[in-house]
Amino acid sequence: MTDAQKTGKYVGQRVTRNEDPRLLTGQALFVDDVDLPDMLHAAFLRSDYAHARVRSIDVSAARTRPGVVAVYTAEDMGDFWRPGPLIVPPPSKVEGIVFHARTQIPMVKDKARHIGDPLAVVIAESRYIAEDALEDIIVDYEPLEAVVDLEKALEPDAPLVYDDLDSNLAAHVIQEKGNYEAAREQADVVIKRRIVIDRGAAAALENRGVVAAWDAKSQQLTVWDTTQAPIPIRNGIAAMLGLSEHQVRVIAPFIGGGFGPKIMMDQPEEVLVPWAAVKLNRPVKWIEDRRENFIGTTQERGQIHDAEIAVTRDGRILGLRDVFLHDTGAYDPYGLTVPLNTQSHALSAYDVPNYYTEFRVVFTNKMIVTPVRGAGRPQGIFVMERMLDLAAKELGMDRTEIRRRNYIPPDAFPYRHVVIDQAFAELIFDSGDYEPALDKAMTMIGYHHFLKEEQPRLRAEGRHVGLGIVSFVETTGVGPYEGARVTVESSGKVSVVTGVGTQGQGHFTSFAQVVADQLGVDVRDVRVVTGDTAQFHWGTGTFASRGAVVAGNAVNCAASNVRTKVLKLASKVLNAPEEELELADGQVRVADIPEQAISLGELAVLANPLRGAVEPGTEPGLESTDYFGPKTCATAFGVVAMVVEVDPETMLVEIQRLVIAHDCGTVLNPMIVDGQIHGGLSLGIGNSFYEQLVYDENGQLLNASFMDYLLPRSTDMPPLIEIGHLETPSPLNPMGSKGVGEAGALPVPAAFAQAVEDALADYGIEILETPLSPNRLFEIVQAARGADE
Amino acid sequence: MSALRVKEVDVDNSMTISVTVNGTRHVRTVEPRMLLSDFLRHELGLTGTHVGCEHGVCGTCTVVFDGQAVRSCLMFAVQADGHEVLTVEGLGTIEELHPLQEAFQDAHGLQCAFCTPGFLMTLVPFLDENPDPSEDEIREAIAGNLCRCTGYQNIIAAVKLAAERMGT
Fold first, then answer.
1. Which of A41, A229, A315, A572 has the most crowded Cβ, counting Cβ within 10 A?
2. Both A246 and A129 in a single domain?
């Protein structure tokens, strides 16, 4: 950092974070830390059945418990009861889409459709009393047969999640590039497999929470919410309560991890807590507990694929056909984002001339599915990478060679994948150079040395070691836009406000770096505010690896405008042409005559005079608001390689080495980028071997606690994650940046499956599913042995 | 908290307790069922201690109790009567971070930081007992604390850095 300060260049440097001292000393505000006078506490009664008609809910006893202020059911909501918004409608550009929107409801009226569907809410003087009162409520359920299995759900006699629909089909989409059937005729080898991917949780360490306070005298509602998207939430709450958007302030303070489900807008609690606060004219707080997080917070990943790949003898992909079922759970408020991502990422980094892709989205009596870090991408990557492994095996070809032969070449960018992606535009990869990343990863893991020397030596000792190496792409930085306002204050310090929320990505530092470089100030003198609609109220939110790309570029644009204003005014004050001025050390000075200078603070005062007149056509102050909207996604790329050892007695898998060669364009802060990659990889490891949400045939979630649902621990991680960086700048934004938030999560299950297969090569297994577990691996090995006998 | 549902609460059961937190003695009257984590956060306003699972797995609520790391969600406040508790607020300040906190910043051992206070309070007594730990010992020491953001690598680096700095 010292070097950075010396040169005044922060972007690209390893700058430690501005926000850390507050976070490390317990002085940072999280939603559950909000404490208001007269505050009440909410607790939700949630359905114990996955599918049940609710005949009646008797809340009379709960209402009489001392300390209980109110108990509400759907009936008590009157006209305020209405289904939430369809957050993402289906893309209009794809022809022939079938889509049945069934958005989330605040509380159950007729029937509960998943474990955890809210039935009633108790508002009491304390959280303890509110939870006591839940026990007083008597629900008369008529249990119905639950829809759990994805394939059975579409059978003609399946019970229906929605009685007004003919089946449990929520959506049906077909997209095509070229002509797969014709390509198949030309192929030397065609491989077809069924691939199954099961659900996992986002499991942010901070559960969700909402605090709402209504000020009747000023007619202002303030809501603290663990959201990744404060501005859309503000608009949703205002619409729901019939308030002006300017009467509602939503604050997303420090958020203890998002990972997707906190993007979700107008979830039952986000609507009901503000509604109750206004109705009761007292602040109301609701903080989810961990069990609720498992049964009341959205999840992802469940899909079944029937995939077919057609290749030539020399390993060229002629085409891919992928027909899959996607589990959306009981409602589908987030539209088709997840399966569309799967469609586009099944093509991954490869030049696939012919592609037939078809999916059916299925309603089930399970928790709602919306994006979780990765958002459909890991499934697509898993399918393509597994199919390539099988093709390589069939052709007797090296697994890295088949990938190399099919990479989109560097001169083919922008590369058109033809299919429409989740950004509602044609999937076009902006830039990339893939082979150097593959070479780098192979060098880092010592690919040839491992296969030729290490593995044979260890196998001779009876050890089961294997290597996995896969590629992945990540579409990042989706639109529509973000904005930012940059202001030089009279103290000479700079304030930056932007609409996105922050959940640990280091925005207080990376955005400050951008501004500090533009204005020549110390990075510690740039104060960033995110996620407060009273400070900035245009934008969408932090998701899809877009914060640094979209908001970062908006910050850059606004800071550049301020720089222009600074130079213009300083030129007059210092009586020197603009091109002779430089901004450094919080001053504007004449480059050759450093003593001829004025501080930014003094300049800010001159730009906002108390007397005299501001010239017509100019704005007061050194301030600018600007926006950035990328046309299409910036496409990041990477190669992950790992070495594993399997203990054939216990089927425990140890990841001994893990390397990643990664390209996310221009890096703002390599320390933060590395951290994002580490975290993504650890989720990927969870999705490979530890994390699986287990629903029984009644739709009951069997492992709704951290005792039973396993997050990777420090002892489950490899000793060292090695990261190699490459930089292919994106042409889509002035900074050349691409996102990295989800990168690590995408390739790990595919690499893990390949490595385990390799380690257990003598058992001849094929791994066509994720997540695995020791017992599942044992079953797969047993099945392969049985087939041999 | 859903696990803790007491049917009938007699408010007269409330007990007056005296707990020393970060060197300051606090006397409060509380229900016997109040969790220590809730007592610290909501009675004393020490919200630096976070709560992640309320069933003793994630380690987020860890505090130092009479010199030992404990999970404050698995204890009642009344059990702390007459005892000493150290929370994250009792380490360094924003202006003057504790060396462990400083090392977490320098090694990027935190992202969303929700779990961080639990890690710090697990590590303070650990480093007291073992000022020069090996990497494996560090990994074991934090195996009871979950982090979803960092993949643990930079946390381990931070502990090594802190041990190095505190040892010299």
1. A229
2. yes
**Residue A689: CATH number of its domain:** 3.30.365.10
Q: Is A48 on the interface with B (CB under 8 A)?
A: no
Q: Does A681 touch chain B (CB under 8 A)?
A: yes
Determine the pLDDT at residue A612: 76
Q: Is the pTM of this model over 0.90?
A: yes
Q: Judge if A601 and A509 occupy the same domain.
A: yes
B131, two tokens: 């000022």
Tokens of A479: 């639109």
pLDDT of A542 strictly over 80: no
Report the C-alpha gap between B158 and B156 in whole angstroms: 5
Q: Do A275 and A403 lie in a common domain?
A: no
Architecture of the domain whose range is B99-167: Orthogonal Bundle (1.10)
In a domain, residue A92? The reply is no
Alpha carbon B73 to chain centroid, angstroms: 10
Q: What is the per-residue pLDDT across A81-137, written as a single tens digit (0 to 9) for each?
A: 999 889 889 988 888 999 999 999 999 999 999 999 999 999 999 999 999 999 999
Percent of chain A with pLDDT over 70: 98
pLDDT of residue A516: 97
The whole-number pLDDT of residue A633 equals 87
Residue A123's domain spans which residues?
Answer: 37-82+105-144+206-256+261-296
A139 and A41 assigned to the same domain: yes
Domain spanning B11-90, CATH architecture: Roll (3.10)
A322, burial (CB in 10 Å: exposed 0-12, middle 13-18, buried 19+): buried
Please state the φ and ψ torsions of residue A266, each to the nearest 5 degrees: 55, 50
Q: Phi and psi at residue A625, in whole multiples of 5°?
A: -115, 130
Please state the domain count of chain A. 3
Same domain, A384 and A346: yes
> What stretches of A330-454 show up as alpha helix (H) in DSSP?
337-345, 377-395, 399-406, 434-445, 447-449
Strand partners, A71: A122
Interface of A with B in 87-126 (CB under 8 A): none
CB contact under 8 A, A23 and B7: no
- B positions 55-114 inside 8 Å of A (CB): 55, 57-58, 60, 87-89, 91-94, 97, 101, 104-106, 108, 110-114
Amino acid letter for position A65: R
Q: How far apart are CA A31 and CA A204, in angstroms?
A: 14
Do the beta carbons of residue A52 and residue A112 sit within 8 Å?
yes
User: Using CA atoms, how far apart are residues A253 and A256, in angstroms rounded to an integer?
Assistant: 10
* Distance (Å) of CA A754 to CA A383, A757, A767, A768, B94: 12, 5, 8, 10, 47
A498 and A609 co-located in one domain: yes
Per-residue pLDDT of B20-62, as tens digits, reads 999 999 999 999 999 999 999 999 999 999 999 999 999 999 9
**Is the residue at A406 inside a domain?**
yes
Q: In this complex, do B89 and A26 lie within 8 Å of one another by their Cβ atoms?
A: yes
Alpha helix (H) ranges present in chain B? 36-38, 99-106, 116-129, 135-141, 153-167
Edge-to-edge strands, sheet with A482-488: A526-530, A494-498, A482-488, A622-628
**Nearest-CB residue to A675 (from B34, B146, B150):** B150
Distance from C-alpha of A758 to C-alpha of A747, rounded to nearest angstrom: 17
Largest CA distance in chain B: 56
- Ordered by start, the domain boundaries in chain B are 11-90, 99-167
ipTM confidence score = 0.95
A581/A728 same-domain check? no
Q: Are B130 and B94 in contact (CB under 8 A)?
A: no
Quick: pLDDT tens for B58-90.
Answer: 999 999 999 999 999 999 999 999 999 999 999
Place of tokens 């007004």: A164
Q: CA dist A587 to A521, A590, A598, B164, Å?
A: 8, 10, 6, 39
Instruction: Tell me: do A773 and A705 sit in the same domain.
Output: yes
**Residue from A317, A400, A303 nearest A640 by CA:** A400
